[in-house]
Amino acid sequence: MGVVQLTILTAVNMMGSGIIMLPTKLAEVGTLSIVSWLVTALGSMALAYAFAKCGMFSRKSGGMGGYAEYAFGKSGNFMANYTYGVSLLIANVAIAISAVGYGTELMGANLTPLGICIATIGVLWLATIANFGGARITGRISGVTVWGVIIPVVGISVIGWFWFSPTMYVQSWNPHHLPVFEAVGSSIAMTLWAFLGLESACANTDVVDNPERNVPIAVLGGTLGAAVIYIVSTNVIAGIVPNMDLANSTAPFGLAFAQMFTPGVGKIIMALMIMSCVGSLLGWQFTIAQVFKSSADEGYFPKVFSKLTKVEAPVKGMIVIVIIQTVLSLMTISPSLNKQFNVLVNLAVVTNIIPYILSMAALVIIQKVAKVNPSKARMANIIAFIGAMYSFYALYSSGEEAMMYGAIVTFLGWTLYGLISPRFEIQDKNV
């Protein structure tokens, strides 16, 4: 695979369903949120570059867990896998809520908070059951449905300028008159949400020509490309749809296309977005099951997640996962769909950042073990430090509630590791 192919693949992988509710969330801050996009783009590129280096020089399996093990041992491996798995559990509930939001707008339905919750649970179970056929079917469906988000997002980035009103954009700059630092911080978690998954961009190292040169270039280029599309699309919409309408919408891209063309076109866009959401959820539900399976194979998680059917699908693990997500959906019932989405995104970002920070800290020793040239290693370590500092800023910006629940989840992880630690720590000391 050449550098151009890998760059495009990286950008497409990041352009999942994370973008489709963002215009609404950013409208609550105003067009000042473009500053948040720029900060997140730089932070995400630093993280992506450091992950590219980790992937190239690490000789341990398990992705971020393997990276963390270099510096923090088996406990670091466990905590990276545990917090990443929890993050995906939460994130998939948010994706399901996005699909429900667009679905209610498409059908003109007005659901109660309980109705939204039941619909979300239904979407999660549907995506899970569809995965019982194995990875091949999931891959084929996801490869088609991703275009449901790419076409509208790229489309509005290119043609939306014909309907763009500079006056409307300026009037929406800071509608609530928040202090700049507070306004920028309040939307950092939302913008990072769109980039979650950037760590998976380094998974194709083995099939790339000259990976030491091309993987970092492709990862940075793909992240930058996704950033440009995200920034342009969300800011174009802010100049097409009035701020208050956008902030109260549960289907912002559908609303924008309805303003640009006709309500019928808006409904087509909503249908495409729903297709994309369900397809993305399908792929991510299978990914979660695989993450839990690999952790169970290593002895970190219960063995139920390791059991496979004839088509190599961890069905029992999937059922356990969707039951947990059902409980999570019930626990986060909120007065509005947007509120519930906001709570889940902040918590998903907090738990996802933990393995990011562990991986950034481990890059120093990963490069030492790989005997990387000191001058090259120093530059990569500086970039990893920048990525870590951005991660701490994103944690701070996620809010007190998300940090509190994230801390509880993380401390619970240490307790769980204590229960399984004898099989690793005693064995290691005997060796």
UniProtKB/TrEMBL annotation:
List, alphabetically, the Gene3D superfamilies matched. Answer: Amino acid/polyamine transporter I
Q: Where does the secretion signal sit in this chain?
A: none
Q: Name one GO cellular component term.
A: plasma membrane
Subcellular location(s) of the protein: Cell inner membrane; Cell membrane
Q: Which reaction does it catalyse?
A: putrescine(in) + L-ornithine(out) = putrescine(out) + L-ornithine(in); putrescine(in) + H(+)(in) = putrescine(out) + H(+)(out)
What NCBIfam families does the database record attribute to this sequence?
2A0302, antiport_PotE, PRK10655.1
PANTHER family assigned to the protein according to its UniProt record, in alphabetical order: AMINO ACID TRANSPORTER-RELATED, PUTRESCINE TRANSPORTER POTE
- HAMAP family to which the protein is assigned, alphabetical: Putrescine_transp (MF_02073)
UniProt name for this protein: Putrescine transporter PotE
